[in-house]
Fold:
Amino acid sequence: MDLKTLTYIVVGLSFALYIAIAIWSRASTTGEFYVAGKGVNPVVNGMATAADWMSAASFISMAGLIAFLGYGGSVYLMGWTGGYCLLAMLLAPYLRKYGKFTVPEFIGDRFYSKTARIVAVICLIFISFTYVAGQMRGVGIVFSRFLEVEILTGLAVGMSIVFIYAVLGGMKGITYTQVAQYCVLIIAYTVPAIFIAFQLTGNPIPQLAFGSTVTGTGDFMLDRLDQVVTELGFLAYTTSNKTTIDIFCITLALMVGTAGLPHVIVRFFTVPKVRDARSSAGWALVFIALLYTTAPAVGAMARLNLTETIQIGAVGDPEGNLAYEDRPDWFGRWETTGLLTFTDKNGDGRIQYYNDANANFAAQAAQYGWAGNELRVDNDIMVLANPEIAQLPNWVIALVAAGGIAAALSTAAGLLLVISSSISHDLLKGTFTPDMTEKQELLAGRAAAAVAILIAGYLGYNPPGFVAQVVAFAFGLAAASLFPVIMMGIFSKKVNREGAIAGMLVGLVFTMGYIMAYKGIFIPVLIENVPANWFLGISPEGIGVVGMLLNFAVAFGVSKVTAEPPAHIQEMVENIRIPQGAGAAVDH
Structure:
C-alpha cells in the first residue's frame, strides 16, 4: 500500500476515534463543559495533561531545534520539564482547593475586582492565541506533507475536528480525547526512534543509543556528530553559542511560563480532591518523561542522518555532495511543501550544504567552487522527515503523521476551551451579564469556541515563526503576566487589586512589545534581532523573565502605596494554603 493511502487510513481512524469519544462524553452542563464535572481520575488526568501540554512544539519542533542547536537546544528540555515541577509544588494544589472554574475567576475573587478579572482574561487571550498559532502551524505542516493537500485545506480539516470535540464535548470531551491522543502521539514518537536507534547503533533504546557508538565507524554518536557538523563550518553539536544569561533567562521563562499557562492550570480543576491535583501532576511528569527523554536522541539522529545523506564524501571533494538529480524521494516530497529548498548557486548540479555564515569556512568553501549554502531546511520538518530519511516502512511514517496531528490538536483544543470559558464565564457571566442562565452560558461558551477556532486557523496560516519559537513566546507572556499574580495571590496577603492590575499590564505590555519589536509580529521589525541589540543580552525567547520581575516589582510597589486588601481576603489567602480534612475541595 502506498504511503499516501496508508496515511489517510491511519489519520482517518484516529479522527474517527476522537469524534466517537466526543459524542460519548458530550457535556450537558457548564461544570462538565469547563472542568469535566471535577470527576476525572488522577491517572487519567495526568495522561490528558501530558497530551494537553506536549503540543506540536514538543512533538514536531523541539527535536528539530535540538537537531540544529545541539547543546543550546537543551534550554527547552530544562525549561519545560522544570516548569511542571514548579507547577506541581507551588500552584496546582492551592488552585484546586480554591475550587473555581478558571484562572481569571481566581484572580478576580482573590483581588476582589472585576477589573482584575478582565485584565487576566486579556492576558490569557494574548497567551492562548500566541500559543495556538504554533499548534495550527504544526497541523498545516503535517497535512501539507503527508496528505499532500494545501496548508489551508489541512487547517480547515484540523479546525473541523477540533470544533467537533471541543465545542460538543467541552472539557469532558477534551479530557478523554486527549487520553487517546497521548497514546497515539507517544507511540508515534517512540516507535520510529527505536527503529532508527537500532539502525544507527544496534541499540534499540534511544536514550542509550544517544551515548552509544555508530555502527561501522566505532565513534560515539556525539563525537561523530561533532566531527560531521564542524567539517561543514557549523558549531560543534556539543557546544552552544548562547550566552549564560540568555540560557538562564530562556530556561526560567519556560519554567515559570509553564506554571502560568491557563490551559495547563485548568486541568487541575478537573480532579475530585486537592490531593488528586498533586497526584495528577506527578503522573503527568511520568508520561511527559517518556517523550522528553527520547527527544535528544531523536534530534541527534535526525541531524546525523540528514547531514550524511547530503554530504556523502569528504568536504571539498567535487564528488562529495549529493547530485540534485539523485536526490531521494523524501527530498522531493518535502520540496513540494516549501519547507525544504535547494538553490543551485554555482550551477554544478550538486547540493552544497554548509554554514556560509561562518566567514572562515566560507573562504575555504570558495576554493572548492562553492558559492554559498544551497540547502534550507525548516526546523519543524526534522521529526516528521526523519523516518523517511532513514527509509523506515510506510506504516511508521503514517504513524508519525497521526502523532504530529494528535499533538497539535490536543493542545489546540485545550487552549480554545480556555479562551471560550474566559469569554463566556469570566466576561459574560462573571462581568457583563451575570443574570444569564446556565443554558445561555453553555451556548455562549460554544459560540466563543467556534470563533476562537476560526482565529486560530488564520494564525496557523500566517504564523509569526516556527512552532517551538512561537510557543516560547507564549510561555514568556505567561511568565510575565499571569504567573506572578497567581503566585502573589496564593502566597502574599498584602498584594492588593491595584498592584495586581498594574503588575499584569506592565509585564504583558513590556514582554509583548519587546517580542513584537524584534520579531515583527503584527508590525514591521523595529530592531534587528541580533544579540548585540538585545537588552542585557537576553533574546526575545527569554525576555519574559524581565517582564516577570517588572510585574512583581510594580505589584508590590503599588500595593505599598495603596490600601491593603480587606480582612476577609487576607483570611481567604490563609485558608487556601492550609490543608483541611482529607483534602476535599471547598467551593466558595
